[in-house]
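ok, trying the design again with the full structure, not the truncated one.
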């Protein structure tokens, strides 16, 4: 459930970006055990946000160029990778939690 809230929170931020502005680089540090599902989810959420910004940029460029098909194809590839990352986030979110844990 936390992941769905995070994705819902990130989507408007990405979609409302001005395509002429260079998006900031998103660094998602792994501060704990890299095998921890929560840490993996944080990293994947950062990657999803970065890819969504890239898709937005590619589609913006596609509307202003002579070669839109290539840019649209690249945005589709990025979109597939976003879906794969979200699927992985959902798999990681479905791990067992100890009673009373956060």
């Amino acid at each position: 459930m936390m992941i769905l809230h995070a994705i819902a929170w990130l989507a408007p931020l990405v979609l409302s970006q001005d395509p002429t502005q260079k998006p900031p680089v998103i660094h998602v540090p792994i501060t704990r055990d890299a095998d921890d599902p929560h840490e993996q989810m944080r990293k994947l959420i950062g990657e999803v946000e970065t890819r969504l910004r890239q898709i937005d940029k590619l589609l913006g460029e596609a509307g202003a160029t002579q070669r839109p098909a290539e840019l649209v194809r690249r945005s589709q590839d990025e979109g597939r990778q976003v879906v794969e990352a979200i699927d992985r986030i959902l798999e990681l979110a479905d791990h067992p939690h100890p009673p009373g844990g956060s």
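Keeping the full-length input from now on. The chain has a mean pLDDT of 77.
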